[in-house]
Design a protein that fits this description.
Layout lengths: L1 H12 L11 E2 L12 E9 L2 E8 L18 E8 L15 E8 L25 E9 L8 E3 L21 E2 L6 E3 L2 E7 L10 E2 L2 E7 L8 E9 L8 E2 L2
Antiparallel strand pairs: 1-2, 2-3, 3-10, 4-5, 4-12, 5-6, 6-7, 6-8, 7-13, 9-10, 11-14, 12-13
Length: about 240
Amino acid sequence: MKSKLNLIYGALSFLIWGVSVADGIKSPSSDQLMAEFDIIKTKVTLNGNKLLFSHHLNGEAGAVIPGATGQLEGAGVFSYVWPTTLNSSSVGFLADQGILALVVTAHPDFDDTPLYDEDQDGANDNDGYVWHSHWVVLAPDDACGAGALKVKDMPVELQTQVPQTWPGLPLFLDSPDYTPSLNEKMISVEVPTGDISGFESFKYDGVTAALKVNANMHSPLLCVTDVFDVASGDLSLPGTVK
């Protein structure tokens, strides 16, 4: 696992040498992976004034979520991820903070979308188990494991420029109202182009991964602990928007 994380960060650090792929990134299936996180193809398509981010999977999209522990400390997170070459400032964060990625996550032990009631039960603070979207900034931190990545921590002194839908967590994590679509073996998210500066030219890749909240609740707060699959195989971010 650590060697894979090292490989991933190494590839991302050199942003981005690889072949441009305008019709998506195809990935071979593997019987060594959970089918629900085995990427067959990842793609970003421009449809009018919206970008459609999608993963085609070997199994049912979103069918598996982490087991609940009953507490935030040590809570698990499962994620479908689209790392990009977009600048962190493209969605309202401070510039040049790390690797901007769109993610769709589920985590039954906490809720980080306080503006929305995803399960329509009248409460906004109890539906982290429902698949939902974030923008996150990823950065390396050996405290997560040698060569591993984290969702970048945001100390108070850096909370000077945040997106309007930032949930108030001390992380470079935004919670926009992008409802993911889970349709059998495909997961997709539509993002309005008006929400992203510089959307006309960027590259991307596809990843499925697990993260975990720090048991001691301090920096690093949210580490990538396992990478299930990488669409390109080496996270060279070869995809270009079709």
